[in-house]
Amino acid sequence: MSAPRAARPAPRGGIRGALLLVVATVALVLLAQQTLRLLPHWLNPFAEETKDRSGPALLQSIRDLHRYEAASGDFQVVVDLEKDAKFLPGALRGKRTLFVGNGSVDAYVDFSGVGEGAVKVNADRTSASIRLPRARLEPTNLDPKRSYVFATERGLFNRFGDFFSGNPGDQQQLNVLAGQKIQAAAEASNLRGRADANTKLMLENMLRALGFKTVTVASESQ
After folding, report:
1. Is-contact 101 144, C-beta < 8 A?
2. How far apart are CA 71 and CA 138, in angstroms?
3. Which residues sit opposite 67 in a β-bridge?
4. H-only helix segments in 13-151
5. How far apart are CA 142 and CA 202, in angstroms?
6. CA-to-CA distance for 41 and 49, rounded, in angstroms?
7. Residue 138, phi then psi, degrees to nearest 5
8. What angle separates helix 13-38 from helix 156-164, to the nearest 10 degrees?
9. In a 3-state reduction of DSSP, which class is residue 109?
10. d(C-alpha 39, C-alpha 133), whole Å
11. Full-prediction pTM beyond 0.85?
12. What are the tens digits of pLDDT across the range 92-145?
């Protein structure tokens, strides 16, 4: 009976060969991805076809508005968002996106906030004074048609992962950041002051057209 043979050690190039195989597979996938993008839409077997199967919009509620839209500001911001792995170089694992966000912020005066005694008219109806609340800002209205990703740098692993799955969370994060930055810019601007001035002018012209000779309109902070 012959003695059992000793187990052979694993070849030194086994691990290296496996790594090369993985890298080659990733490279082939990326190459195929780029090649398919160059094909006409009708020749690309992985091309997406969009079908809108949405139902009709349903009216949920109706509210009476007691506000005057007095001013609107258009803003643009460039969001520079970078995501890196802690222990991997950016060439392997990392993503940097430049996003151009365009949106508007409206300023309004809420007439429902006019308190008792805020409107005063003299006996012969020739003089009137009104004290209004300060203008407020609506949340940012980000325009999806004019907001877009300007540039993207992705590591090798990110490119491989994006081939198989989308990243709706990234787009949502970009939209939120752009909205926050535009809102902060609107707060720092003179948009509310312009809305106060426009509302004052509108009321003065309207009351003078009704026959009032002296009209005084002021905001609560004045």
Report:
1. no
2. 11
3. 110
4. 13-38
5. 28
6. 9
7. -75, 160
8. 60
9. strand
10. 60
11. no
12. 445 778 899 999 999 999 988 787 788 889 988 889 999 999 999 999 999 999
> What size, in residues, is the chain?
222
175, 139 in Cβ contact below 8 A?
A: no
Q: Who's near 147: CB < 8 A, 6+ residues apart?
A: 99, 100, 101, 102, 103, 175, 178
CA angle 46, 47, 48 (to 5 degrees): 115
Alpha helices in the chain (DSSP H): 13-38, 156-164, 168-188, 191-209
Alpha carbon of 119 to those of 35, 130, 132, 210: distances in Å?
A: 71, 5, 9, 15
The model's pLDDT over 177-199, given as tens digits with 9 standing for 90+, comes to 999 999 999 999 999 999 999 99
Joined together, the tokens standing for residue 12 give 């030194």
User: How many other β-carbons are positioned within 10 Å of the β-carbon of residue 11?
Assistant: 9
How many CA atoms lie less than 13 Å away from 24 in the CB half-sphere? 6
